[in-house]
Every structure is written in structure tokens, then in C-alpha cells.
Specification:
Elements (H helix, E strand, L loop, with lengths): L14 H9 L25 H22 L7
């Protein structure tokens, strides 16, 4: 289903919450931080905890910069 929608990656732990919030008319935004792809890629080495932590730290920096840039532009309605 997600590939049909054009998704490249998904975070299964937030998909239900986003769907339910939308059904209830609750504004909901998600910033997912993907750390690895080993669950479906059979041609790569298994991911290590160290590799996950490294990518997670890089993602935290990216999300922090994103929020610092975007929050001032959000207007209360």
C-alpha cells in the first residue's frame, strides 16, 4: 500500500497515530528519523547498534536545524 502511495520509507510506529489523528480532525505532524534499512535489504550486512547511534545523532542534528528554521514560520490560526 505505501509503495502505491509513493512512499520510499515508512515508520510503522507512527502510521497508526497519524491516521487516527487525521480521522479525528486533529492536526498532526511527524518527523521520522530513519536509522537503517536492514529489515528488507538482503544484500547488505546486518546493522550494528553503533551504526544506528551514529545515524540517529546525525538525524537529531538535522531535525533540530529543521525545527529552528520552521517554527518561526508557523502561524497560529
Amino acid at each position: 500500500m505505501f509503495r502505491q502511495l509513493g512512499a520510499d520509507i515508512i515508520n510503522m510506529s507512527i502510521a497508526p497515530e497519524a491516521i487516527f489523528a487525521n480521522e479525528l480532525g486533529i492536526p498532526y505532524a511527524v518527523i521520522a528519523m530513519s536509522t537503517d534499512y536492514d529489515c528488507w535489504k538482503e544484500d547488505e550486512e546486518p546493522v550494528t547498534w553503533e551504526a544506528i547511534l551514529k545515524i540517529f545523532a546525525e538525524n537529531v542534528d538535522k531535525v533540530t536545524r529543521l525545527l529552528i528554521h520552521v517554527i518561526p514560520k508557523v502561524k497560529n490560526e
